[in-house]
Amino acid sequence: DAGVTQSPTHLIKTRGQQVTLRCSPKSGHDTVSWYQQALGQGPQFIFQYYEEEERQRGNFPDRFSGHQFPNYSSELNVNALLLGDSALYLCASSFRTGSEQYFGPGTRLTVT
Amino acid sequence: DQQVKQNSPSLSVQEGRISILNCDYTNSMFDYFLWYKKYPAEGPTFLISISSIKDKNEDGRFTVFLNKSAKHLSLHIVPSQPGDSAVYFCAADGAATDSWGKLQFGAGTQVVVTP
After folding, report:
1. In this structure, what are the phi and psi dihedrals at residue A84, rounded to the nearest 5 degrees?
2. Which pLDDT value is given to residue B101?
3. A100: closest CA among B12, B94, B14, B112?
4. Which domain holds residue B18?
5. Closest approach of B90 to chain A, Cα-based (Å)
6. How many CB pairs under 8 A join A and B?
7. Residues B33-68: pLDDT tens digits?
8. What's the DSSP call for residue A1?
9. Domain count of chain B?
């Protein structure tokens, strides 16, 4: 049973560029949440997708957007990258919008 | 606005002894609390959780205690093993109606278990 998978593992982008990160949820899960983890901090909630709609959103600007597909996989898009967007981006899946979320290994984004 | 706080960035404990990790929160609306463990280059792994209607939950070597009046929870690991060396995150949920799944995390505590 595959857990949560994310791609790519690492990514280097230049300031001002756009990036797309991908996530496949754990089998049987229908909800995907995205988190940003800066160095030395805990994960910060970006948004959550359920039934292909954004259900909840954290304190992140509109440059951060997402999408959920019919197969429950999800994408996180970040436009106009800033140096401060450099972080580990974690995807988590759950059944419905429950609390017990299972995390993927993350995508390490570096903005230069 | 950091609503979940882990004030000890690190903890060193001898193998076989008890590890006690602490977490404080400020939002009395939180209804569910979770502990995650994270190894380098991996995502956080769910360890144990507790609902606000309980004050203790136990799972093998891991026990979580919740003191609602003090807005404090703790994770006890007994006995500590070398494989427990990791970063431990406290998380809280349910801060508002219809906001389940919007986990708020503390900054983490690095645990090192020494032989």
Report:
1. -70, -5
2. 83
3. B94
4. 4-114
5. 9
6. 67
7. 999 999 998 999 999 999 999 999 999 999 999 999
8. -
9. 1
